[in-house]
Amino acid sequence: MDDPRFRDDLYRGTACAYDEYRPSYPPALIDDLARRCGASGAGAMLDLACGTGHLSFALHGKFEHVWAVDLEPDMIALVRAKASAAGLTNLRADVSAADDLSVPARSLDLITLGNAFHRLPRRAVAANALRWLRPGGYLALAWGGSPWDGDSPWQRALVELMGHWRARAQAETRDQDRIPPGYDEARAAAPDLDVLAAAGFELVGRWEFAVRHDWTTDEIVGYLRSTSVLSPRALGPLAPEFEQDVRGELAGHAVGGRLPQQITFAYELARRPDGQALLAQGGDPLETPE
User: Fold this and answer.
1) Would you call 172 helix, strand, or coil by DSSP?
2) Other C-beta atoms within 10 Å of 69: how many?
3) Top-level CATH class of 15-146+180-213+264-280?
4) CA distance 50 to 283
5) pLDDT at position 284
């Protein structure tokens, strides 16, 4: 079963909210990932479907070359502005769909995807990633940071409210195809790690990092503005009423204006087999460069 195709404009207009309100990956995760990948300040990494570059900026000091790519022009414009303001000369940012990107074979040491692999044509991306990585190079799927992940009363209330407003938006607006039909079935039939293994990756492991985060109601609203299904563009004229409803509901749960959460961040690491392993399988099938 092929992955259903998501729309290209899902995150149009969300870049500023995405950059301001999405929690950063914890330094412990970044340091652990860099250590396991053997990052030493040399080599090259690609941050695929990079958003506003949370992983690109966190890892830029651990590679000689960092390439941030996203199909949303507003995201890339913000990455470029941030890189320029920080004086970073080793960070390149380009607009491209993940499966349209042209990358020399065996040119990368690490490819990262932050909260994104599930929205991409996974088989095509996995096959390309295997070809782009040098033998022994790594692919990391990074996850985490959503305020509704948990079982506290305020999170249960938020999930219920989000479901109500998504259903209302689908009923009252013409913007109804933000999650393509068959998405859940396709991912259940072929989980992400199965897709990577089928492409030829060795699965290395998964590591989790829990951090405490105290949200304010303004931050929750800002985070929701950064999502593909409850952004102001997705909700249209319903957006002001939705945000008012969120603030009113969560105000009753906040203690001292704060909504505490133990956020679990994680990354799943896969590796392109080294040259010897490939030869043992009958030769390197990725000899032909793009």
Assistant:
1) helix
2) 23
3) alpha beta
4) 33
5) 45
